[in-house]
Each structure stands twice: as structure tokens, then as C-alpha cells.
Amino acid sequence: MNRNCEGTEQLRNIPGGREMFDKLEDLLVRLEEILSELNEPGVANDPARFQKLMKEQSELQPIVDAYKEYKACQQTVEESLMMLDEESDEEMREMLKEELADAKSRIEELETELKILLLPKDPNDSKNVIVEIRAGAGGDEAALFAAEIYRMYVKYAESQGWKVEVMEAIDAEAGGYSLISFMVKGEGVYGKLKFESGSHRVQRVPKTETQGRVHTSTATVLVMPEVEEVDVEINKNDLRIDTYRASGAGGQHINKTDSAVRITHIPTGIVAASQDGRSQHDNKDKAMKALIARIYDYYQQQQDQQVESERKSKVGTGDRAEKIRTYNYPQNRVTDHRIGLTIQQLDRIIEGKLDDIWYKGSYDGDWYCFLYGKIDNRYEYITMNSASSFNVIREAKSYVGKYSSIRMVVLPK
Prior knowledge:
- By secondary structure, the protein is an alpha+beta fold.
- The protein has helices spanning 9-13, 17-38, 47-86, 90-117, 140-160, 189-193, 280-303, 305-315, 346-349, 355-358, 389-397; strands at 129-135, 163-171, 177-185, 198-204, 215-225, 239-244, 260-265, 270-274, 325-328, 333-336, 341-343, 367-375, 378-386, 405-412.
- Strands 2-3-1-5-4-9-10-11 form an 8-stranded mixed β-sheet, with helices on both faces. Strands 6-7-8 form a 3-stranded antiparallel β-sheet. The chain has a 3-stranded antiparallel β-sheet with strand order 13-12-14.
- Helix 3 (47-86) packs antiparallel against helix 4.
- The chain starts with 8 loop residues before the first helix and ends with a strand.
């Protein structure tokens, strides 16, 4: 049975289907062009071009695969209907009817899947990230909690096959970190971690508490997309680079040579430092990456005060009352305050099982969409609820044309 023929009439007839069909055909052609370019002999000698093509291919491949399957299923429907008209054997007719029903069911699923795949994406979603975790309110306990939050993200990164590189760490006297910043490298890192920015609150009995009282402490998390050097123009004459002897426990070279590096961007006063690399060159590279990301973030703030205000509202001051999530140890409970989601799985979450709170594919309850879009140089927030993740995404899609940029997260409620 030929499943590669055109089978797009049903797609054309759904609301917005013609525009969707045209876009899918364009993406199909574009993917073929990319694959052709990747096979050119000289492309491997141009790392920047090769990386750009590979990234575009990874973004288009899932869409094109779903579209090809859709067309194959549509062709199956057409051929099954034709054969039913001609077939007289009852057993064969039953088999054709079953194949027809399966194809129609899969077509409905693929229509929804294609709509989701074509939703506008944050251009930063595929980027690596730089995460900064700072101890907030709560003294020593806040620093210890900051270390546990860092460990939680490291565990999650390992489960995703991502790579974590510490860029800067300031140890607290009683243990933990006053500040730790690190880079996470991998596929789609920012897309998954971007909503972690904000104040994280912990409620538990500290080891030093003799009366058994529950204390509340906080740590703030800031997630920034890594910015390539081409995105930010930096004049080398505007940089002051200082080297110094790294502090803390070390190996063969640390504490013996001036391997730590601190880079200051003079026009903005922004500083980035690294001391955990094996050499001065390694530390300079890490510090420069952090500096570029911070300068990019700085100029983005200057250009759009609305974004800055929204960003600050996410991170907060670290006060106990400002929180996006609470980790309650006595009750083994995690609560995401943005969507009112509470689960009794703290022991799993703190071990890096973050998908337990982000996604629940088999969740048997309502779904919630938290969406914000930019219109007239300001941001609006929209919330939607539905018993189906597909329905809530379909409803969210109706807002796409209204906004110049859009971000969305769908979670079980």
C-alpha cells in the first residue's frame, strides 16, 4: 500500500488548515535543503555553519516526521475507503474497517500534535543556561538549602544527559553556599529550566535546632540563557582582567598559582569570576562566558523596563513571603505557588526528579496553562484550565496572533 502520496485534504479543511498546510510544506522543503547542505563536502570545515544547520535540523525534524505520518495516515484512510467499496469478503472488510478506524484516530492525534509543534517557541529555549543560586533569608540554613537546590539541578541535569560546569562558588561558613553559579549545557536546557527563576522556600527542622521547631529559609534562583559572543559586542579595551590565587581546598595547582580570573566590564561595572577551572585559561573562558551573559542581560533590561520588572518579580528579594515554590520536609510536600500544585513527593523532587512536578503525562486531573505574552510593549498573564492537556494548548494557541512574543508552560493542576 502506497503511503507516501499526498493526503492533505483533511488538513486543509480544518480551521486555519490551509495556512498550516502551506507552512508544513515549506518546512518539509527546508529540511530537505538542510540535509542537502549538510552533505556538501566543505560544510564540516565551517563549524559555525555546521552547528547552525544541525540546530535547525533538530528543530524541524519532529515537525516534518509528524507531518509525514499525518499524510501517510490520510492516504491509508483514502485507500481503505476505496478497497471497502470493492471488497466483498466480510473478513477482509472487517480488517479494512479496523485499519480505517485506527488511521482516523491517529489523524486526530496528529492534527493536535502538529498544532502544538507549530506554536511559537522562545528563541532561547534551545540554548545552554547559566544558573545563579543565592542564599536568601534564614542565615546558615539558607546557605545549606542553596547547596541542596544546586544538587537537585545537578541530579536533574545528569538524568537528561546534560553537562554541568561550576563557574563561581562562595562557600558559607557553616556549610553550603552563599552563592553558586554554574553552566548547564545540553539540548533544550533553557526551555526546561527557565521557569525555575524565583525564590524557593524551605520549611524544616535544622540540625542545630534543639526544640524541634520548623524554620523557614529561602534561596533565590536565576536562570539566564547563554549568549554567544556574536550576540553581544564587547570591546576588549573595555575589559579589565585580574588574576589571583584561588581560595579553598584545591588540588595540585590551586592555591599555588594565580589561576583564578576576575573580569570587569568597565562601562557597566559588571564582574564575573571563576576559580574552579584547572588552569588560568580555563577560568578565563568560564568567566568570559558568564560576563557575556550578564552584559546581555544588562542591556536587555535597559531596553525593556517591563521585562526587567517581570524578571525581578520572578527572582524577588529572597524574602520568605516571596516564593514560587515551597519545600516542606516534615510533610514531604512540594507546592508550586504559581499554579497551586501540591504533591507529596519532596523526597523525589530533591533528588532531581523535577519532571514529577513539571509534567505528568498520566495525570488524571485538570491541566493548567500559565502563559504570558508581550503586547504594546507590556506583558499580560493568562491562565487556562482544562481536563485535557491538548485542549488547554489548543485554547492557548488562540492567543498566539495577539502577541508579538509569547511564552507558555502547561502543567497538571
